[in-house]
Write a sequence for this structure.
């Protein structure tokens, strides 16, 4: 079974802090994704990556950056956390580009105070 | 612009009471429509992929169908363990690997 893990289940940070969320998948998947999930809005794509050191903006990249130095690891960075970034963050991966189901991690519930 | 809506927002059923969830979509050239199940505090879990109108897929008490404008997730004789949020998502021809998710339907099955 594919396993996608995220570094923290719950995180509380202060406004202005730099926040790192890490995601690791163990099945040699090429593509990885970061979403945020908010009530009534569904999952919205922040960034995705096709390969090591490659990244593409999703629908809501403002205020975020990403890093993919190794194939199995995809990090989401909040350069200066703000209260409107309080959300559930979900990482996902797929084996390769195409029409493919996504495998999700358990999520990180981030609260910015 | 690709768009997905789901209805109802929430659904409460008695155990054994069959019903359907709706997913309406607008997309430029559908490549695939996905259904996921999400339990509270967890990430979504894949259920089905549908590729073209007329296609149907089944898994236990769940059956997904697809037309050119919408998809239905039929739940037959549901059990309390079917309680979850069900998400629909579409992948269009112009969006490459990007998938657009709907807001979900929260299903509660009462014993």
């Amino acid at each position: 079974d594919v396993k996608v893990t995220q570094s923290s289940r719950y995180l509380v940070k202060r406004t202005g802090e730099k926040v790192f969320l890490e995601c690791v998948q163990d099945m040699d998947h090429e593509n990885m994704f970061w979403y945020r999930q908010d009530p009534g809005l569904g999952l919205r794509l922040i960034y995705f990556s096709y390969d090591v050191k490659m990244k593409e903006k999703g629908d809501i990249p403002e205020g975020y950056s990403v890093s993919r130095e190794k194939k199995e690891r995809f990090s989401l960075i909040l350069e200066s956390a703000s209260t409107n970034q309080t959300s559930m963050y979900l990482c996902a991966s797929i084996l390769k580009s195409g029409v493919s189901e996504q495998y999700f991690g358990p999520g990180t519930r981030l609260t910015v105070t | 612009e690709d768009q997905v809506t789901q209805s109802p927002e929430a659904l409460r059923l008695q155990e054994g009471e069959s019903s359907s969830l709706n997913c309406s979509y607008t997309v430029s050239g559908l490549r695939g429509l996905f259904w996921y199940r999400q339990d509270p505090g967890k990430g979504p879990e894949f259920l089905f992929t549908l590729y073209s109108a007329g296609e149907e897929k089944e898994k236990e008490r769940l059956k997904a169908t697809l037309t050119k404008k919408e998809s239905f997730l039929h739940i037959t004789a549901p059990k309390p363990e079917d309680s979850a949020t069900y998400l629909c998502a579409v992948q269009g021809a112009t969006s490459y690997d990007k998938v657009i998710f709907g807001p979900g339907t929260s299903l509660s099955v009462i014993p």
About this structure: The interface with chain B takes residues 4, 31, 35, 40-45, 48, 50, 58-59, 90, 92, 94, 97-99, 101-107, 109 of chain A (CB under 8 Å). The radius of gyration of chain A is 13 Å.
